[in-house]
Specification:
Elements (H helix, E strand, L loop, with lengths): L4 H14 L4 H12 L9 H13 L4 E5 L5 H7 L7 E6 L2 H13 L6 E5 L2 H4 L8 E6 L6 H10 L1 E10 L15 H15 L3 E10 L2 E10 L3
Parallel strand pairs: 1-2, 1-4, 2-3, 4-5
Antiparallel strand pairs: 5-7, 6-7
Helix pairs in contact: 2-5, 3-4, 7-8
Length: 221
């Protein structure tokens, strides 16, 4: 995959203007790095996008799949009203412990709940919940199943966002045996066939290279 340094420079330019970092986010990133977590969190502008989307739809209940160090969960929590809540699912106990600490230091311990376990084991336990926004950013191999669960756990008007769906263009490879590519293609098939959704995919370039995200709104029950 070709990486143009201009992408990152433009990303940093707009981030300084529209999503300036602050001590809380800096500490979150530093603590995640010190704990040896992989550098897979959303970029500053992508984090700000989550805040904007949650604010636009007046989200009160948000579900996130893939907590990592809590960076995106903090962005989502910043859009919540006082009685709002984020539930975020993380398969790694070590990652979850870092996230819990970061979220508490950010002042959102009362609004963000980190649940540890495989998402496909945890999601059935949330069957009685309804979420205004679902952010899919866990393992891509299971994205098809995550999308099906997102449909069960949302209502008309809910928004579903799925990160990393372009895979640097690898999503075009129908013969790929990469589980992330296979899972993403299956996810896209369901996304396109699902009449309950109006959806699109936005390709992105930036500090994290070439990728993209899916954005969908739930139309009906």
């Amino acid at each position: 995959m070709t990486f143009d340094r201009t992408w990152a420079e433009v990303d940093h330019y707009f981030a300084r203007l529209l999503a300036p970092t602050d001590p809380i986010l800096e500490e979150t990133l530093a603590a995640s790095a010190a704990a040896g977590l992989p550098v897979q969190q959303v970029s500053a502008l992508q984090g700000q996008l989550l805040t904007v989307i949650a604010t636009m739809i007046n989200a009160r209940n948000i579900l996130e799949l893939g907590t990592l160090g809590g960076y995106s969960a903090i962005h989502l929590a910043r859009a919540l009203p006082a009685n709002g809540r984020v539930i975020t699912l993380e398969s790694s106990p070590r990652h979850a412990a870092v996230a819990v600490d970061n979220i508490a230091k950010a002042g959102f311990a009362d609004r963000v709940e980190v649940i540890v376990g495989e998402a496909l084991d945890t999601l059935p336990k949330l069957a009685d919940r309804s979420f205004d926004l679902v952010f899919l950013d866990a393992d891509k191999a299971n994205n098809e199943d995550y999308l099906r669960w997102a449909l069960k756990l949302t209502h008309p008007g809910s928004v579903i966002v799925a990160d990393n769906v372009v895979r640097g263009g690898d999503v075009l490879d129908a013969g790929s045996i990469d589980p992330s590519v296979v899972g993403t293609r299956r996810f896209a098939d369901v996304l396109g066939a699902q009449r309950r959704l109006a959806a699109t995919v936005i390709q992105t370039v930036g500090a994290k290279g070439y990728d993209g995200f899916a954005l969908a709104v739930v139309l009906g029950p």
